[in-house]
Please model this.
Amino acid sequence: MMKKIFAHPESLRDTSTHYCPGCGHGTVHRLIAEIIDELAIREKVIGVAPVGCAVIAYDYWKFDCSEAAHGRALAVATAIKRVRPQNIVFTYQGDGDLAAIGGNETIHAANRGENLTVVFINNAIYGMTGGQMAPTTLIGQKSATTPLGRNAQLQGYPLKISEMLALLPGVKYIERTSLDSVPNIIKTKAAIKQAFLNQIENKGFSLVEVLSPCPTYWAMSPQDSLKWIKEVMSKEFPLGRIK
Amino acid sequence: MKKILMSGNEAIAEGALQAGCTFYAGYPITPQNEIIAYFAKALPERGGVFIQAESELAAINMVFGASSTGVRAMTSSSSPGVSLKQEGISYIAGAELPAVIVNIMRGGPGLGNIWPAQSDYFQSTRGGGHGDYRCIVIAPYCVQEAYDSMFTAFDLADKYRMPVIILGDGMLGQVMEPIIPYRKSHVAYRKPWALTGCKGREPNIAKSFFMVEGDLEKANLKLQKKYQMIQQKEENFEGLFLDDAKIILVAYGTMARIVKSVVNKLRKDGLKIGLIRPITLWPFPNKVFNKHLKPKTKFLTIEMSYGQMLEDVKLAVNGKVPVEFLGRSGGGVSTEEEIIKKIKSMK
Model:
């Protein structure tokens, strides 16, 4: 009898996604689904989807989900978890959602030490709205709103919100990972799984920042996007355990 | 049951707790701070969840989250804070979640001041945030009625799965009156849509997002149908001396207390005067206006704002009779003398 070593996760719907070729969202959606299956928590997970490219993440997952207004995912998730501590609650947020419009919600949920899992997709750009500057856009990086490249004098510096959050005593775990290679995707899965395990063990606020490719608005091929994460983006946003 | 002395703000909080509210999130703002303080103490004691949010935005979105799990949830604020909550209220309406929002109005626009006002009538009765939606708006005029309104508010929110606003003002919030804080069993609505984990069922999704062509129009038409039903069934008002009234005064909330006193006085003087006090501002009690619409009836709308409810009164009488207006705002409140002077000028 042959052993089954690869299957479609139960927590992932069998459907194609709206994501562009080479986008990282589909990969992370699948990692989350695999983790939820492995931890056998599908029936008690409540996910909170963001506004941005992953706005309809709930159409791809197969468990209870809520939407949240742009930036407000951690306010919505805070209340869900406080009311139903027996459920496993996570947010899935992009850089604009988590670090710009939702900066306040992010800081205060982390500072309260909410027992939540946060998956933070950093692709250094606003995807859904057409490639505008994100708080994490690199210096010199061109976008629809920085046509000459991000200029620190005018637009400030790439925001390292993970490092900022690590200063807060309420935060249990923060790790930055990347999707640029298979070994790093495996590390990303391990980190997100750790963030879920922390919640199951009531340890408190856990966040995984994932450097994720956006070939469309980086104006690069999918292959060059992965190379850019490795050679450029992860120099600005170093990988590894932050807290 | 023994009467106890309570402020309007305290009565609102206690009424909500008695109506089964187990979640409150809010941000301090005058003149409603007694509400947040009451919940901070009482909710943990009674097994509920209290969160002092980092902003009004966070507070209303926490209410969204709590309500999506099926519990009775509310927030409270005052005018500038309620402006901030409009984003969340729109999402709650779109996602068809029940929620109660208390607005203890103060003077505006901008930071305005902390004195009583009724200037948020348009914002409350017209939706307030973006999109085609409505909120049920209940305007209590005394502390007992503020307490009673909380049962109605949570029941209506659950029944119709929509935001319900309790619209008071700084005077109602601060005034202390003896009330009977009775207990009443509330209807436990079935909530098969709630997010509880998908054990033994298909996943539930709480959302207001409908991208597929035609889906949003369908969802909006569903809301409109619900609103028409509410307009038919849920109008509420108090009428006084309407049968033979030649002049009908229209006022709500704190303003109605002063106006009611004027009506009683002038009746004693033999003047054929009556009062319509809308208790639901949306749905506006149109039917009672039609019922008492005679060719020579005159209406006078009196507000602590500059002609906001006036528009609803004009819509209700549809140009058939004249509607006059008296109002002050920014902390100013028309006195009995000013009201009587205005009435005499109409004769």
Notes: Chain B touches chain A at residues 22-23, 25, 49, 51, 53-55, 57-59, 61-66, 68-69, 71, 73, 87-88, 91, 95, 195-200, 203-209, 211 (CB under 8 Å).
